[in-house]
Amino acid sequence: MARYKKVAMGGTFQVIHLGHKALLEKAFQVGEEVIIGLTTDELAETLHKDHRVSPYKERKTLLEEYLKEMGVLERARITPLTDPYGPTITEEDVEAIVVSEETKSTAQERNSIRKERG
């Protein structure tokens, strides 16, 4: 049973690997609605990935297909992620942020911004 009405998470999702799968599973386990910030092409360029990043549209299709396989596509809202924070600092009703150990510090920054904004 979901503990939160709305949770958020984000990523580039070039390939949906085991880490992505674990985060997605956790997000849909704890949230009724999951906002997934998908890194835009412009933001992906600034991340200096050590591999080619496919265009946004291709990555979005891949993500939608995986969410459909999981049976949760109707509970997802994929939104363009143009900065490291995305809707987690603009949507007041986001109750939880699902992150990996590698992105925990950015989540803490998000929480600080949210706190400053009330």
Supply database-style keywords:
Rossmann fold, four-stranded parallel β-sheet, 118 residues, alpha/beta, 4 strands
Explain this structure to me?
The protein has helices spanning 18-30, 41-46, 56-70, 104-116; strands at residues 4-11, 31-39, 76-81, 96-97. Strands 3-2-1-4 form a 4-stranded parallel sheet. It has 4 helices and 4 strands. It has one domain (4-116): Rossmann fold (3-Layer(aba) Sandwich), CATH 3.40.50. Helices cover 40% and strands 21% of the residues. The protein starts with a strand and ends with a helix. It has 118 residues and is α/β, with parallel strands linked by helices. The protein is globular and about 40 Å long.
CATH superfamily: HUPs
Per the CATH scheme, the topology name is Rossmann fold
What percent strand? 15-25%
The residue-averaged pLDDT reads 88
Rounded Rg: 14 Å
Strand order of the largest sheet: 3-2-1-4
Number of domains: 1
In one word, what is the shape?
globular
Helix content: 25-40%
Total of helices: 4
CATH class: Alpha Beta
Structural class: alpha/beta
Order of helices and strands: EHEHHEEH
Characterize the biggest β-sheet. 4 strands, parallel
From the 3D coordinates, which CATH architecture would you assign? 3-Layer(aba) Sandwich
Topology overview:
Blueprint (H helix, E strand, L loop, with lengths): L3 E8 L6 H13 E9 L1 H6 L9 H15 L5 E6 L14 E2 L6 H13 L2
Parallel strand pairs: 1-2, 1-4, 2-3
